[in-house]
Amino acid sequence: MAQRQRGKQGTRRRTGAKAKRQVGYAVVGLGHFAQESVLPAFAHARGNSRLVALVSGDAKKARVLGKKHGVPVFGYEQFEECLALPEVEAVYIVLPNTMHAEYAVRAARAGAHVLCEKPLATTEAECREMIGACEESDVRLMTAYRLHFEKANLQAVKAVREGKLGEPRLFSSTFCFQLKTPNIRAEADKGGGVLWDIGVYCVNAARYLFRAEPVEVFAFYDRSGDARFTETEEAASVVMRFPEGKLAAFNVSFGAEAVATYRLVGTQGELHLENAYEAKGPIHWTLKSRGKTRRGKAPSRDQLAAELVTFSDCILQGKDPEPDGWEGLADVRIVSALYESARTGKPVKLEPIERKRRPTPEQEVGRPPAKTPELIHVQAPAR
């Protein structure tokens, strides 16, 4: 109890520095995504967010990136030292999936707010531990779902909400790319696997478009005999049954041409997004509604800056974020059920849960696209 109380005191002390309207972040993990997308995002979020520390287990990254950004760098074994810095109010966790829960709980108990990459964790129990630790220490927890702030996806949500498609009935999606290995996405002990890495985007999109939770799921997966996938699956095919006659199906692969698309079909129209899940580049959309067809595109935006801006606002204003930890847990329980189905060859039924909050068009945050910096000691995941 004493430890949790210290965490609460630390939170009050830190968020008391509200006058300058900037939340200080430590970025934990300096892999490809952190370097290419997270670190550059602070330039477009400087109104309320600033980078104040880095945590890495790689000496070269620590030396070069610490100097470049002018912030101290800590090893993983020095994580508590990093959290003890008064300017560290929040952490952005960009670690392998199996490390999310440990570092989120440690941060929360030290009084730091937690922004954590998806998937929130790799088990429902770990998600609940993260949520509980943040609640007990009175800190915010946000799952880093960047598309909850992206224009095209939120306009899709709006189209459904306004009845442009009639009643939504069918969701279908394809998301794939050629994975370059070695890579943690293909390592079982790191929480790798195509469903954890990119399948979760399709699951989340189906949920926010249907504005409902699946009641039953079924999945196949395959390693395809490719030497890259000795520990995890290369591809998966999924069907999810939602209430009121709604069905979702998607295919994901680490061994196919790069595609990121979804289609939603309703009783009176359909909506199609190309480049739907990508962090960079424009997203093209086609809406067919009651006999009329419209096409357009949402420009490339800095989606990570949108996350930072939103989470910092929540911290400074004492609000709960959307997407929160429970949103992350909702997807983790579904992906876990998909793996169970694929292992057993049987459909898996899900206990009903209620989600009162969903992404809304009002959540859109627009920031110009970030430039790709020089990357240190990492390789891109796609071939």
TrEMBL record:
Xref: InterPro entries: Gfo/Idh/MocA-like_OxRdtase_N, Gfo/Idh/MocA_domain, GFO_IDH_MocA-like_dom, Glc-Fru_OxRdtase_bac, NAD(P)-bd_dom_sf
Enzyme Commission identifier(s): 1.1.99.28
Keywords on record: Oxidoreductase
Superkingdom: Bacteria
Keyword Transmembrane tagged: no
Stretches the record annotates as Disordered: 346-383
Domain Gfo/Idh/MocA-like oxidoreductase N-terminal: 24-144
Keyword Oxidoreductase: yes
Residue ranges of every copy of the GFO/IDH/MocA-like oxidoreductase domain listed in the record: 155-271
Biased composition (Basic and acidic residues): 348-365
GO molecular function: glucose-fructose oxidoreductase activity; nucleotide binding
Pfam families in the cross-refs: GFO_IDH_MocA, GFO_IDH_MocA_C3
PANTHER family: OXIDOREDUCTASES, TRANS-1,2-DIHYDROBENZENE-1,2-DIOL DEHYDROGENASE
Protein family per UniProt: Belongs to the Gfo/Idh/MocA family.
Name recorded for this polypeptide: Glucose--fructose oxidoreductase
Organism: Stigmatella aurantiaca (strain DW4/3-1)
